[in-house]
Write a structure and sequence with these properties.
about 160 residues, alpha/beta, five-stranded mixed beta sheet, 5 strands
């Protein structure tokens, strides 16, 4: 379409009062399409969440500090919902958390979403996902030691690592 034809069509639309009607219809179509896209994106996002467990504490700024105050040993998995490996290993970590609660009730098992509490992952220098960190305070008042877990991501080997 030539620019002159477009301009003359727009002028006629304004002159006859149809521009507002046409624009309104276009706006409605765009809003409906955008709303449908948001709903689809929201449904897809909920499917992409890493599976949760009742035996794993989801960390935020407050729960992190409380866990460190109340437990001498804390086992943290750093993850992100967009991480495919995190999704694949989540069932194994959840099974480990359930076993660890029974075998080592004094160890807190937690999970930290790096997209929600970025400062925590950067303070532990997390550079790959999922990343496992074991924090152990040998005695009250002593600075806790931090270890990156090198065990295989299986229920049994993670339990052996804690022991």
């Amino acid at each position: 379409m030539k620019l002159s034809h477009f301009i003359s069509t727009a002028v006629l639309a304004v002159f006859f009062g149809t521009a507002g009607t046409l624009a309104g219809r276009a706006d409605d179509t765009i809003v409906t399409r955008y709303s449908d896209e948001l709903e689809a994106e929201s449904a897809a996002e909920s499917k992409r969440l890493v599976p949760k467990s009742d035996h794993v504490v989801e960390l935020d700024k407050h729960t992190y500090l409380e866990l460190l105050k109340s437990h001498d040993e804390v086992f943290i998995e750093f993850y992100a919902n967009w991480c495919a490996a995190c999704h694949g290993l989540a069932p194994e970590f959840n099974a480990f958390a359930e076993s660890a609660r029974k075998k080592y009730p004094n160890v807190a098992i937690a999970r930290a979403d790096i997209t929600k509490i970025e400062y925590l992952s950067s303070s532990y220098l997390v550079n790959m996902l999922p990343e496992l960190v074991f924090i152990r305070r040998p005695a009250p008042g002593v600075t806790p030691e931090v270890r990156f877990v090198t065990a295989n991501f299986t229920d049994g080997e993670l339990l052996d690592y804690i022991g």
